[in-house]
Amino acid sequence: MTLAITGATGQLGRLVIETLKTKTAPEDIIALARNIDKAADLGVPARVFDYDAPETLAAALDGIDTLLLISGSDIGRRVPQHAAVIEAAGAAGVQHIVYTSLLNAPNSTLGLAPEHVETEKLLAASGIGHTVLRNGWYTENYTMGLPAALEHNALIGAAKDGRISSATRQDYADAAAAVLLDKALQGKTYELSGDESYTLKELAATLSTQAGKEIPYVDMQEGDYTAALTSAGLPAELAGFLAHCDVEASKGALFDEGTQLSDLIGRPTTPLAKAVAAAIG
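Below the sequence we write its predicted structure tokens.
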């Protein structure tokens, strides 16, 4: 069985490939990337795969049995991009597509949700066998900001007391690898989230314990948080997106009580304390 991974040079794609290499022959894994030079260190065959060049996609999928379609990063353009990939997969004879969607996508209030819902509909209409991995929040979305919190002696956000059931990228990568390799796990929709949930105040407390100094959580209004992130150097669009997600988290959008992720990977999801330790070294 030949597997192909889109977005292979991205943060999730790389982890999926590294995980797959421990479980199957590297020559059976194809890295699909817009810039093939960035795939040179992956240790698997690579092919150019550009979502915005739909006429080239079917040829790039020749001989592929199972495709992991990692959702594109161009928010607002993902539906036509994903549609092109799905159409090309059908033309190339791909037997199964595994798609990374969003936790509770049909009911989610996150701005990301509509494109995922539309992609799921495209898959259902395609006639191609498919599995939907509705990934929850990445713990790294918060832990990437911890060094700055240590520097400024405060963790800022706009999530109030909303609980967040996140998991690490490695957790989600392990789930994707499990589904890609085991046909008995395919053909389903999975709601994936971390085993434990936390508030940003609890994240700050975990950080304080590990850093050996008090790092309070400072809750902000959405506009103020957006401005703070922008002043810290984030692009305005990304800053606004993260602030929006925090506000929706305050309403429960990032919370889930299921254990489908740990069930898939056969172990507990990565504890918050471990993810914090990794982030601050």
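The chain has a mean pLDDT of 96.
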